[in-house]
Write a structure and sequence with these properties.
Layout: H1 9-19, H2 26-40, E1 49-54, E2 58-59, E3 62-65, E4 69-71, E5 77-84, E6 90-101, E7 107-111, E8 115-118, E9 121-124, E10 129-136, E11 145-153, H3 162-166, E12 174-185, E13 194-202, E14 205-212, E15 218-228, E16 234-241, E17 244-245, E18 250-256, H4 259-262, E19 267-274, E20 278-284
Parallel strand pairs: 1-12, 4-12
Antiparallel strand pairs: 2-3, 3-5, 5-10, 6-7, 6-9, 6-11, 8-10, 11-12, 13-14, 14-18, 15-16, 15-17, 15-19, 19-20
Length: 292
């Protein structure tokens, strides 16, 4: 059995391209199953489990609302609703983890007792919904605490149909989705502050370090790089998808500049955009910073 989490980078971008407006159709699910069968061969006998960790709260035939939860001194509990839009019962298992990030921005999860929740295992009937109740345990700090509630579909092996028997397909493929819903525990005095800590360039690659200097998380929508010639004409532009930056941490964002364009640039502008505002910076380009 293979477990596969897709959360950031190329994997997440592929999932975003598939999801589109935030929903996965049953048609897509069937096509995806068919493509995996083709890769495995018609005589495959193992069950493949793909667990997809996504930021959106909709997948296949079920969805979770809200997409995130804020807890604070005045709001110490909440509810996530798991809604089954399909025609079959879906089983779930639920867990909670403390959420941090390493120096490269990779999400890191550790066990926690700060968040209490119920139930830990549940079933949602067709066209029905169930509530997952969340509670905060322990005092607030001066900095935001961050957690994820994992809601994981318990896979049910696909039944072999008569058509599959004729084609000598002896095993089905089950795709199980796992959502990681953010839970933010706000400090008494939240401060959202972020800066472009550094812009550097080497071998035709420009990198901007976005640092969160506040005491709560930020969520960047995008980081945009814009290269201009001496006359002010824009010759290069690239938008990089943003992500969460937890309090006190930083994330690097990079863009590759084509060799023929790089040598014509004199400046590169960087704009980091959140839902509520933006910051910008500028960097002077030298010839030896381009790919040789």
């Amino acid at each position: 059995m293979e477990h596969k989490n897709i959360d950031q980078g190329k994997g997440m971008q592929r999932m975003k391209n598939i999801i589109g407006n935030g929903s996965l159709s049953t048609v897509w699910r069937k096509r995806f199953e068919a493509s995996i069968k083709k890769c495995m061969g018609l005589t495959a006998t193992s069950l493949l489990l793909m667990t997809v960790l996504v930021s959106q709260s909709i997948a296949g035939d079920f969805q979770i609302q809200p997409m995130a939860m804020d807890l604070s001194l005045n709001v110490k509990s909440g509810v996530f609703s798991v809604i089954n839009n399909g025609e079959e019962k879906i089983d779930f298992q639920v867990s909670a983890k403390e959420w941090n990030q390493d120096e490269k921005g990779k999400d890191v999860y550790v066990d926690t007792k700060d968040i209490v929740f119920f139930p830990k295992v549940m079933s949602v009937e067709p066209k029905g919904q169930r509530a997952i109740r969340i509670g905060l345990k322990g005092p607030l700090g001066t900095k935001e605490k961050t957690y994820r509630l994992f809601v994981e579909e318990i896979p049910t092996p696909k039944k072999t149909s008569a058509d599959d028997v004729k084609k000598n397909i002896r095993a089905g493929v089950t795709i199980a989705f796992r959502f990681a819903m953010p839970i933010f525990v706000k400090p008494a005095r939240p401060q959202e502050i972020y800066v472009i800590d550094k812009i550097e360039m080497s071998k035709g690659a420009v990198k901007a370090i976005i640092r969160n200097t506040g005491n709560v998380h930020i969520k960047l929508r995008a980081v945009t790089f814009s290269g201009k010639a001496a006359d002010g004409k824009e010759l290069f532009s690239k938008e990089v998808a943003g992500w969460y930056i937890l309090q006190g941490l930083s994330l690097p964002y990079e863009a590759e500049i084509p060799k023929d364009v790089c040598k014509k640039l004199t400046t590169i502008g960087v704009v980091a955009q959140t839902e509520d505002g933006k910051i910008d910076g500028k960097f002077n380009v030298e010839k030896n910073m381009c790919a040789q």
